[in-house]
Write a structure and sequence with these properties.
Elements: H1 25-45, H2 51-58, H3 62-68, H4 72-97, H5 100-120, H6 122-130, H7 139-157, H8 166-180, H9 186-201
Helix pairs in contact: 1-2, 1-4, 1-5, 4-5, 4-6, 4-7, 5-7, 5-8, 5-9, 7-8, 8-9
């Protein structure tokens, strides 16, 4: 008879995954600079931009780039997510500095800038998706949350109508960006955003 195979002892359970250590100040500056340069370079030059060129413009060595972003796809995804976070995280500061309706109008301009950047990075982002990544995983939830906060603040202040759906405003902003999001058409985009704001302030006449 074949002797019974003895079970292999299980490896001892390791500790729970520890949170990532915060980067040193100089390392964080390098990372932020790489992301800033990557967004600009990928938007202007598309997927032809080399990692060497990005590292050189950021003032770091290619080894520093790879320590933060082990693949090109990792850098592209992080650069896009950084722009998304910059846009959405700006809501708190805008509401602290401006009246809610002015904060919303300012954020609209930033949203159009964000979509223009996203279009510029489109080829690089498609390569990330083709490699199995999903850079847009958080986009809808984060943008909807930002718009919800802006609309709620405006409704509470009585300057924005209270029946507006965040998704409707985001779709309207996307339409403005689609037809007038390029730099040469930004005057038209501004006029269209002003019209959109007028609609958000509209109050139906009492019955």
């Amino acid at each position: 008879m074949t002797p019974e195979r003895q079970p292999v002892p299980a490896a001892p359970a390791g500790p729970a995954t520890a949170p990532e250590r915060p980067l040193r100040a100089d390392a964080q500056r390098n990372r932020d600079r790489l992301l800033e340069v990557a967004v600009r370079a990928l938007s202007a030059g598309g997927p032809e931009v080399t990692l060497d060129a990005i590292a050189r413009e950021a003032g770091v060595g290619i080894g520093t780039l790879y320590r933060h972003f082990p693949t090109r796809e990792a850098l592209v995804e992080a650069a896009y997510r950084s722009e998304l976070a910059r846009l959405c995280d700006s809501v708190t500061g805008l509401l602290a500095e401006l009246p809610p309706d002015a904060a919303l109008r300012t954020w609209m301009d930033r949203f159009v800038d964000y979509l223009a950047t996203k279009r510029g990075m489109a080829d690089a982002l498609r390569a990330v998706v083709a490699s199995g990544g999903n850079p847009f995983e958080q986009s809808r939830a984060r943008l909807t949350g930002a718009m919800t906060d802006l609309l709620a603040a405006g409704a509470a202040a009585g300057t924005i109508r209270p029946d507006v759906q965040p998704a409707d405003v985001l779709a309207s902003l996307s339409g403005v960006s689609l037809v007038a999001g390029e730099t040469a058409a930004r005057d038209q985009a501004g006029r269209m955003l002003d019209l959109l704001m007028d609609g958000l302030r509209y109050r139906p006449a009492p019955a």
